[in-house]
Amino acid sequence: MTPKSIIGFILTLVGLVGLIYGGMDFTKGGVAQASFVYLILGGVLFFAGISLIRTTKG
Hints:
- Helices cover 84% and strands 0% of the residues.
- With 58 residues, it is mainly alpha-helical.
- It starts with a helix and ends with a helix.
């Protein structure tokens, strides 16, 4: 594994955790603004990680 793919994997995991946490907070009726922040940041990190893994050769 190259360093780029390792970073992509870490970004994907962090994004997935953010999406899960934001979804759980949103369904529990937590503060809606914080839930959206977690969901948006989680989505951005998740898709950035997936994109980095796909573009990395090897």
